[in-house]
Design a protein that fits this description.
Elements (H helix, E strand, L loop, with lengths): L6 H9 L7 H18 L5 E5 L3 E5 L13 E4 L1 H9 L4 H6 L3 E4 L14
Parallel strand pairs: 1-3
Antiparallel strand pairs: 1-2, 3-4
InterPro entries: SCP_3
Protein name: Bacterial SCP orthologue domain-containing protein
Organism: Pseudonocardia oceani
Length: 116
């Protein structure tokens, strides 16, 4: 993630226990990190969802086109950004239920985190 207008610093401070950033800053951080994930692992076999801000399909493999995808990762914005920045591990987030992963390929996202 880049630091456009200081937003990254606000997000990192929030993840470390500081005040929450404003919604546009949070939305931009989520969207940028999801875009970075899609670039790191182009494909359409896993859908990563961070409601209410965005979702991307990534990971090479069978393409999903209709209905609920068979491989889904879903997290709230704070958990997703903590995963993306390495502030929480995939295993810890999965164990405490803050990230939900379903489908045989969903775990492939683990190897891409934290985002570089």
């Amino acid at each position: 993630m880049t630091d456009a207008g200081g937003g990254l610093a606000e997000v990192l401070a929030w993840l470390d226990g500081g005040p929450a950033p404003e919604r546009p800053v949070l939305r931009a951080a989520v969207k940028e990190s999801l875009a970075a994930l899609a670039v790191a692992a182009p494909g359409r076999s896993v859908e990563v969802r961070v409601p209410p801000f965005g979702a991307v399909q990534c990971i090479p493999g069978p393409r999903h086109t209709r209905g609920t995808p068979p491989n889904v990762v879903e997290a709230d914005p704070r958990t997703w950004l903590a995963l993306a920045t390495g502030r929480v591990s995939w295993d810890d987030a999965l164990a405490d239920g803050s990230v939900r992963a379903s489908g045989a390929r969903a775990g492939d996202v683990r190897g891409l985190l934290p985002l570089g």
